[in-house]
Amino acid sequence: MKTTRRLLLAAALALATLTAASVPSAVHAQVVDPLPSWNDGATKQAIRDFVQATTDRQSPDFVPPGQRIATFDQDGTLWVEQPMYSQVIYCLDRVPDLVKEKPELKDVEPFKTVLSGDKQAIAKLPWKELEKILIATLSGMSVDEFQDQVKQWLAKARDPRWKRPYTELIYQPMLEVMRFLRDKDYKTYIVTGGGQDFVRVYADRVYGVPTEQVVGTMGGTKFGYDQNGKPFLTKEPTLLLNDDKAGKPEGIHLMIGMQPYAAFGNSTGDQQMLEYTKSGDGKRLSMLVMHDDAAREYAYGPATGLPETKVGTFTQALFDEAKKDDWIVISMKKDWKRIFAFEE
Amino acid sequence: MKTTRRLLLAAALALATLTAASVPSAVHAQVVDPLPSWNDGATKQAIRDFVQATTDRQSPDFVPPGQRIATFDQDGTLWVEQPMYSQVIYCLDRVPDLVKEKPELKDVEPFKTVLSGDKQAIAKLPWKELEKILIATLSGMSVDEFQDQVKQWLAKARDPRWKRPYTELIYQPMLEVMRFLRDKDYKTYIVTGGGQDFVRVYADRVYGVPTEQVVGTMGGTKFGYDQNGKPFLTKEPTLLLNDDKAGKPEGIHLMIGMQPYAAFGNSTGDQQMLEYTKSGDGKRLSMLVMHDDAAREYAYGPATGLPETKVGTFTQALFDEAKKDDWIVISMKKDWKRIFAFEE
To answer: Which of A31, A293, B130, B247 has the most C-beta neighbours closer than 10 Å?
Structure first.
């Protein structure tokens, strides 16, 4: 089945390439569905309409290629964020190696609790304590060392539910949106509250997003020389920009310098980015992924009737703003034919 | 003469396009000189050799397109920096309008001195005082207002020597290097001590460098809403990164996340960027523009025998490091056939 589909796709693509020059684009577009993991309906159509309106030269909403910017939150928008952000798990997992390097931390909180392996106690650590772990595991090493540490973790870590590498817990429908936009000369950026250097390690391989298009929470680095006089950068414990909430449009300005035409998020952390995007002239697209599929992924947020979560907070107020300001809420349950590439 | 040259160039380009698929690239390269404003010689050849070595699939130093990063300092490397950085002139020129908006500054130093028009007194202002003018004219307004202010200034301001817009004082040979690299799938970045938002206003039009490829000194912005609830960003007086000296590799890591393969500078402010570039594996290119042509532009720096300047400091130590570490020093006098596009 998989092979058949691939062959059909290849044939369709070849046909599309051969005929693209001679047939109208509407006919061409019907040949290959750019969003095969999306159920037909208003949500999928809204994405296609937006792309059509902003990339067709005849459209009043045509956007020149250099201005075609689309921004994607990561946690809960591109990959699974429950029960805890993957980067926080990374930081907790790093603690034993950290204590090997710095044995004096063994009896110091919060490192002591993390080393104990007591999951309930770890889950109860207040944010202030967790922050100490983040700083200790995300700074103090060279940029190259950090990249190696993250790569090693990604290769061996498995999530608790699907027992798969975290980088396989990517939403296939969102990958299709990214590819569809890139095929239409959009530049796709990740704009995440996660660490910029962390996400850069796998963004190209996993999302097709090169390092210079990853906008995240930014820490400072310090230029220096090793004992052979060779320059290198050390990750510092200084925060340049917290790329969350109001920090997202601020980070977009800093890194891109242009307002996006399309933005995708899933929580109150994305609110300002979606407002900023939607407030621009012409046709803009602001979308929110709603986690309402406990069977295939997780259910949380206002539409589920379940209590709000601290991870990926989606309040009723955000839901109301989305309805009022013509943002589109994506129902994972109704709009997505499949969620992960590994599903059959 | 100009028309003839353009026709010849067009014919050569057409020929190159027609035959590119069927002739070896060495022959193709001879058809059109990508660096017509450079005199033949070792410097020009070094640039061509670098491009050949890093973009030819058969070369041991081949670099995949996604990693082809080239960074260019601006002041003194891409455009004239004497007698004073253009952005500082912008800030001084803004003072009268600023005082109109804030009359209380009229009798306050250093604004009072700037308003006096006394050029000698203005030139004597210490850096601490100048900084107050920079902060007052580069922050406090919305990002859109700032862009409008810079655009208006660029349209009317003229430099004191050539009586031309500052954006015409661009070194034609360097524009050719940028285009040559881009034609070979290099991404060209500006990495400047100047303000990131300032340079972005004209970088695309003047250098063909889009806003997201301008790395400069970065100030913070603050997200907020106007009286109609529309989001906008205000330029804040906070410094996120001083993109000079060690700040250049730090800014490159922040904005690009990869080490450049080629870097171009002209002063001690570029030293760390050139070191960082040259220290990477494989073939790398670090170049320094030396201002040794008082007749056609300016002469300053160690090779001229003139005293060092505060603007664009090129010390003997930097010159020695260049020689030792195999950086290439560009002599404007010997290597450049013409300096500006407006020359006949």
So the answer is: B247
